[in-house]
Amino acid sequence: MRLAFPLAVSALLFSLGVFGVLARRNAVLVLMSVELMLNGVTINLVAFDAWWSDALHGGQVLTLFVITIAAAEVGLGLAIVLLVFRNRATSDLNDLGLLDERAEATEGNGDVTEPGVAR
Amino acid sequence: MNAVELAFALLGAVAVGAGALVVTTNRIVHAALWLAVSLGAVAGMFLLLTAELLAWVQVLIYVGAVVVLVLFALMLTRAPIGPTPSAPAGRLAVAGAVAAGTAVVLLAALLGTLGVERLELSTTTDGAREFGTALFSGWVLPFEVLSVLLLAALVGAIVLSKGRRGEDGR
Known about the structure:
Number of domains of chain B: 2
Largest interface: A-B, 69 and 85 residues
Oligomer: heterodimer
Number of strands of chain A: 0
Number of strands of chain B: 0
CATH superfamily of the largest domain in chain B: NADH-ubiquinone/plastoquinone oxidoreductase chain 6, subunit NuoJ
Distance between the termini of chain B: 65 Å
CATH architecture of chain A: Orthogonal Bundle
Largest sheet of chain A: none
Shape of chain A: elongated
CATH topology of chain A: Helix Hairpins
């Protein structure tokens, strides 16, 4: 099989993930786009593992690690998103500007802390 | 183009098409379900690249656990079921330009250097055995470290979602 097929698919999936991370506003959708990027990478790892005929199967083992770490990342990331939603009643990344000095200066942006503390 | 390449190209088209819908559809829950389709197609590609065990791990963990977790998060954050307004056009243009640039650079770099290579797929039927032997002989220490990482993530998720101490009388 030509190596070009997996390489092209992985590059396209990674670019779609980049687009999603930059264009989406919902935090859960951004996490899903990160999953797309990770999958683009894992296709490359498995393809190079098969191309190299690696006796240690480094590519496949690393793919297994990437999948595991992605599962941990999604678990923690969604816990953080839920916590933010519980505190601020939104999961829109545009509304989470508490550390942004410009947003602080123009308007309160619906923040729940005491005004004037962060200025 | 032989049968394996044809099947791979079809699965790749499904994965990329579903991935495009994930990042463009206006309905958030549909995006999560298209993500399941895309990840399932990636599992099929693993199968074609003779990584059977990884294909089933992908189905179990990604299509099974991660997508269900994402759907739960969407429900718990009361994401709107109906269509949501898309991002402003300027932001879409910037994101599209960066993504197109990434795609051009990656495709040029990968296909320019390795596009003519061919990979010989192994024809043995005990790839899972070989993979397991490699994993538990050469990669035992990273594997065990990974289990510590999973434990840390588990504890962290529990601590995060338990809420602040004293807030609810504990």
